[in-house]
Automatic annotation (TrEMBL):
Residues 20-434 form the AMP-dependent synthetase/ligase domain. InterPro entries: AMP-binding_CS (IPR020845), AMP-dep_synth/lig_dom (IPR000873), ANL_N_sf (IPR042099), ATP-dep_AMP-bd_enzyme (IPR050237), OlefBLtnSynShew (IPR054910). Keywords: Ligase. This is AMP-dependent synthetase and ligase. NCBIfam families: OlefBLtnSynShew (NF045785), PRK09274.1 (NF006754). The keyword rRNA-binding does not apply. CDD domains: FACL_like_1. GO terms for molecular function: ligase activity. The keyword Membrane does not apply. It comes from Colwellia psychrerythraea.
Length: 593
């Protein structure tokens, strides 16, 4: 028994970085693109230097008073310091708290209140917001300010004004020491923890509800790394154009360089495609991670003329010849945007759409060629195909139920081709939310023996609806909260909406429920294409008539006969695809009353 425990207390994500620092010390680990006045510059660091710098920071943090098990908010823009700080926190056993700044001030304050951080590490802007809005004031004891290399003495002055210390001053005050006075590189002995120990708290974006802190264990991170190696065939020496901070951290852990473009990761639709294309070309990136919104932006830009001042040889469209794969996750894929983007790739390069969530990712994957081959099913109300489960993931479908399910038994699983709630199990599946026992109870199902939250048998209820077909392939049918129930049937958002989205004047639609004569009735909100909006001869009645014909032609939509046009759907910032149907439902009801 003792031997088993000793073996299990050897976990730390940074062991992969330590290995890369030995195996390929001088290979590129991280490159960060900076765009100023149309000029692009790059900051670079190799594996051995990143390993050493994170050792230095880990030592300084512990000397500053932060110990293993403490929690630290990390609000630092993607940079070399972001990578070094994150790995330093992991090495020291300090739990990083990662949040999406785009979730809004109110949600951020709630996140910090729930997570009770011991330290706040951030750029000056983050510290100013912390002071203005009182983030974490009841628990934060240590403050650290991170500025760019050119800030000079001003960073120390600012840090002292807010009661903390700059990263530069911290490293100067607490230089790493090596007990053995040799010429060997000074190092920090990383903290070793059990597989199930909390290693990070990642807050959901709140785009589909209140943000919740997902407790990540080292086992979860290891499972994600394994999936990227085995299911996505990522190998050491590759270069990844990483557009999402969390995914970019996996690069060094995989022996792959992370190339970080100049963009706001929380607002990918505002990214400059020319910057991204330039970074891919400069570093001959083999992998690209991008959510569907960015895939749309890059696809649109790549098939049109590129501004003459960009650092690209090809000015009349883009061919991303170095890419071996593209990974897309975060929201349902748009078939048209996937088809457009594949024009930028070599013929044999897939866009791998992955299904998952902050609580569990990746769960399934499907290549673009296979996805596009299912378009006729999707366009006729069959849901979106998200592919086969990755290795080690078990997917079940259970009856739609808003109640807590305490323990699992196989009789809960529905047969093939039956729509229900998606339930998942695997090492990359989180076991709990931080300080949210009711949310944990709602989302988790324990093993039949009532095993504790460290059990491998904890299942997660995704809050998404879908079905498994006869081949075990998963099809998505929308959020459970977005289903519309009437006296006669239940309607599901994605199958219904995709039928109407095929009309040439429709950009996108949203199914909502309204009350008419005290009865629950489905209604379709419609956002027109830009071309339809500009068309002076556009006739609303003609469109509605055509949509009613489509509705009656499909059993999924036969109950829909009410339509409203909305100028601009409210959507989440990050994905520009997750429609706030709750807001549209309120608007639609007001329009009808």
């Amino acid at each position: 028994m003792t031997e088993t425990m000793d073996k299990s207390n050897q976990a730390n994500l940074c062991r992969h970085l330590a290995h890369a620092a030995i195996a390929t010390p001088n290979a590129l680990a991280v490159a960060v693109q900076k765009g100023q006045r149309g000029k692009l510059t790059y900051q670079e660091i190799d594996f051995v230097t990143l390993h050493q710098r994170s050792d230095e920071i880990a030592y300084a943090l512990t000397a500053y008073g932060l110990k293993s098990g403490m929690k630290a908010v990390l609000m630092v823009t993607p940079s070399i310091d972001f990578f070094a700080l994150t790995f330093a926190l992991f090495k020291a056993g300090i739990v990083p708290i990662l949040v999406d700044p785009g979730m809004g001030v109110k949600n951020l304050k709630q996140c910090f209140s729930e997570s009770a951080p011991d330290a706040f590490i951030g750029i000056p802007k983050a510290h100013i917001a912390r002071l203005l809005f009182g983030w974490g004031k009841s628990s934060i004891k240590k403050l650290l300010t991170v500025t760019d290399a050119n800030s000079g003495a001003g960073a120390n002055v600012f840090a002292s004004l807010i009661g903390g210390m700059s990263l530069t001053k911290l490293l100067t005050r607490y230089p790493i020491k090596n007990a053995a006075k040799t010429k060997q590189q000074k190092s920090f002995e990383m903290v070793k923890l059990s597989d199930d120990a909390m290693s990070a708290i990642l807050f959901t974006s709140g785009s589909t509800g209140t943000p919740k802190g997902v407790v990540y264990s080292h086992k979860m991170f290891e499972a994600q790394i394994t999936a990227l190696k085995d299911d996505y065939a990522i190998t050491p020496g590759e270069r990844d154009l990483a557009t999402f901070p969390l995914f970019s951290l996996f690069g060094p852990a995989l022996g792959m360089a992370s190339i970080v473009p100049e963009m706001d990761a929380s607002k990918p639709i505002k990214a400059n495609p020319a910057f991204i294309f330039a970074a891919i070309e400069k570093y001959q990136c083999t992998n690209l991670f991008a959510n569907p919104a960015l895939i749309e932006v890059l696809g649109q830009a790549g098939v049109t003329d590129i501004p003459a001042d960009t650092e690209l040889d090809n000015k009349t469209g883009v061919k991303l010849r170095s890419l071996k794969r593209v990974i897309s996750a975060g929201a349902p894929a748009t078939l048209s945007s996937i088809a457009r983007f594949t024009q930028l790739l070599n013929d044999d390069v897939p866009v791998l759409t992955s299904y998952g969530a902050t609580e569990s990712l990746p769960l399934t994957k499907i290549a673009s060629a296979d996805l596009l081959a299912t378009s006729h099913i999707t366009n006729n109300g069959g849901g979106i195909c998200v592919g086969h489960p990755v290795n080690g993931v078990e997917i079940s479908i259970i009856a739609i139920n808003d109640n807590v399910i305490e323990t699992w038994h196989d009789q809960l699983a529905l047969p093939a081709n039956t729509i229900g709630e998606i339930v998942v199990k695997g090492d990359m599946v989180s076991h709990q939310y931080y300080n949210r026992p009711s949310a944990t109870a709602q989302a988790k199902i324990l093993a039949a023996d009532g095993a504790c939250s460290t059990s491998n048998d904890v299942r997660h209820r995704m809050g998404d609806l879908g079905y498994l077909d006869d081949a075990g392939v998963l099809w998505m049918c929308g959020r459970k909260a977005h289903r519309v129930e009437t006296d006669k049937k239940t309607l599901f958002s994605i199958p219904c909406e995709r039928i109407f989205n095929t009309h040439q004047s429709v950009k996108r639609t949203a199914l909502v429920g309204v009350k008419i004569n005290h009865k629950s009735v489905p209604l379709l909100c419609i956002e027109l294409t830009d071309e339809a909006k500009r068309n002076k001869n556009f006739d609303e009645a003609t469109l509605f008539s055509a949509l009613k014909v489509s509705a009656l032609a499909h059993k999924q939509t036969s109950a829909i006969s009410h339509f409203l046009i909305h100028d601009d759907f409210p959507v989440d910032i990050r994905h520009n695809a997750k429609i706030f149907r709750e807001k549209l439902a309120v608007w639609a009801q007001q329009e009808l009353d």
